[in-house]
Amino acid sequence: MSEIAPRADLRARPRRLRAGDALRRLVREARLHPEMLVAPLFVRPGRRVREPIYSLPGQMRFSPDELVREVDGLVEAGIQAVLLFGVPNAKDPGGSGAYADDGIVQEAVRLLRARNRALVIMTDVCLCAYTDHGHCGITTGDDVDNDATLGLLARTAVSHAASGADIVAPSAMMDGQVAAIREALDASGFSQAGVMAYAAKYASAFYGPFREAAGSSPQFGDRRTYQMDPANVREALREVALDAEQGADIIMIKPAHAYLDVIRAAREAVALPIAAYHVSGEYAMLKAAAQLGWIEERRAMTEVLTAIRRAGADLIITYAAADAARWLREDTGG
Ligand code: PBG
């Protein structure tokens, strides 16, 4: 009985295609590329300021002049899109710094635009970093007033577009925010400015480091009356459909790492590009574990970003954008 034919179930040997690096690359399904990465950046008033953010290792708050230098470096590394967040000096109940012509984001956008025509400049549109109560809209008593907030979000978006932003990204999770912004942009002569809608934005514990970076924690209550319940995916599809109907150009799912199923579901539901936001806490926990020597940073970060891509994201917003671009270049010998 020595000449037995190979067992049928061993004709198929998936290991054949894993035998060497070239073979593995040849059949790889999901790839990352620096062109699909968006770098989130924090900008604050001042000159020559690069202020490290303790809870986001490797990230800083930049004054506009330093932001311009930082972005030059990112572009050099192959990153072609940034998402800006403002950290203003002053806050008030109406979040007026968000839509001031001389606001910090407006100033930064004008400088970046003058410096680089090709860069894709995206801006976060929200009030939470500008209101003294830290909520994403204006409040009436303890309630975040949806309809009264829409006009201020629209004003903020128009002022960003007027400063030179290509894409505005409303993150306040107010109902109707995409339509309000689309209408205001069109009425103000910015029909070419795009909207990247934070369509499914969950009330997540993973925004902690960001709130420290932006000083945007709510001073009372939490964001659960406007951000989504982490348990829900059908509701995410409803939000995605509403934002698509209201004229969104790009649909965002946020967070990303813990919401891969939501990214996949959104990918299958709409034809629009899907962006996934690998948020501050998701980045910070990898950095922290790596600092403790518990995981290998490069491999772990690459694995997570690749998983987000595999789930169906076309764009990935990540604090690891610069590192990933460098790793990808090393990887391809470029
Ligand atoms: C503003 C906003 C937040 C984030 C992006 N836009 C914070 C929040 O909703 O509290 C989080 C980004 C991150 O954690 O990296 N509303």
- What is the helical fraction, as a range of percent? 25-40%
Q: Give the strand order of the largest sheet, numbering strands 1, 2, ... along the chain.
A: 1-4-5-8-9-10-11-12
Radius of gyration based on Cα positions: 21 Å
Average pLDDT figure: 96
- Distance between the terminal alpha carbons, to the nearest Å? 55 Å
User: What's the total helix number?
Assistant: 11
Order of helices and strands: HEEEHEHEEEHEHEHHEHEHHEH
| Major β-sheet profile | 8 strands, parallel, barrel
What structural category arises from helix and sheet content?
A: alpha/beta
Query: What compounds sit in this structure?
Result: ligand PBG
- Unreliable spans are none
